[in-house]
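Q: What does the assembled structure look like for these inputs?
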Amino acid sequence: MTQIEIYLLAGAAMFCIGLYGLVVRPHLLHKVMGLNVMAVAVFLVLVSVARRVPGPTPDALPHAMVLTGIVVSVAATAYSLALIKRIYTETGAVTLQETDDDA
Amino acid sequence: MPNNIERPRRAQHIVAVGLLVAVFVLLARAVLYIPMHDTGVASSIQDNLQISGVLNPVTAVLLNFRGYDTLLEIAVLVLAIIGVLSLQREGMLASGRLAPFADPALSLLTRILVPMMILIAGYLLWAGEKAPGGAFQAGSILGAAGVLVTLSGHVRPGWLSPAIVKIIIAVGFVVFLVAAIIPMFFDKNLLEYPLHLAKPLIILIETWLTFSIGMILVTMFISSAAPITDDYVRGDAT
Amino acid sequence: MNSPVLWLDILVVVILILLSIRIFSEASLFKSVVLFIALGLFVSFAWVKLAAPDIALTEAALGAGVTGALLLDTVGHLRSRNVPYSKHRHAEDGTSSNA
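A:
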């Protein structure tokens, strides 16, 4: 197994773990972290793919995509966290479930 | 009674984990099928590097070859910060004090770290033309430095009024957009820089992008962070 | 094949996967967020191993730093004794701790 394959498999595994957080965990903060873990997994796959090029300098195109991707994912996270706080302030809920135990 | 609720949830949980394992197997097969000796577009980037105006292939891709992508990504950033700003309650950008006081140890650390971070950001911006670095890296370091300053209880300087903050947020996108559109008046395509102007244009755009990205990140933190004064009491009056 | 460099890669990957599992199996939100920040730092180590030092720098500043600060702040906000608007309106008998 090569170095690239190790990171590619890790990316696949982390994508599924992030998907678990997004789909299964009810708390909105867990969902945001799940999205972020999925983003990191995709970045891992992209940067590993960039490493296929022989020689010391990796492929520039995936690197450029990952760089902008990190900044954009932080922006999306900040926006979704602002939404979560607003939901909490307005309704007191931290999940999107219809039947809440304390309701 | 709790058992009745627990059991379908546990069953759902097992089904979900099973499905995710299946997704993992599919993804693992997919990533292992990526051809290992296909070098993608790396060689064509290297071949065309001399017409991009810069020597760092990542910067060349970001600001020249795929400048359209980057332009739209900056637009996404500006949209996200507009969203965050519109979700906050009035005047939070004006108050902006997050910590009750400047903790001495944290304050000292900030005084040492922040000038170094600004120096690193400047170096990254300057080196981005020929070595790993550029506007996104420098902007994120600036943003992290700003978050550090905010967290350690320092207040925003007086000259940095909300209007100026908003101008700095927008300036990177505006400069980039203008630089992208101007070639269209000279019978060229969007973002098609003239060869001899490519390098100064890219450096100009990157410089303003650095300030904008840094300011966007700091403002995101400031405006979404809970201020130290409890304004829930104020909301009670409504 | 089993050079020490490759073992380091395997170690980083195992830590990454264990950390991301722990993030979502942790009961306490605060611990989840701290683990998420730790994940960001280990990911930036992975970027260094994959010959992407500038991405490592960005990841450490943003993925671990700014995102971590934002998440911690949200946890504090959701946990704080600030009672949401609606509950203020309903609880007019003074049980809520508003000033």
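Chain A has one domain: 3-91.
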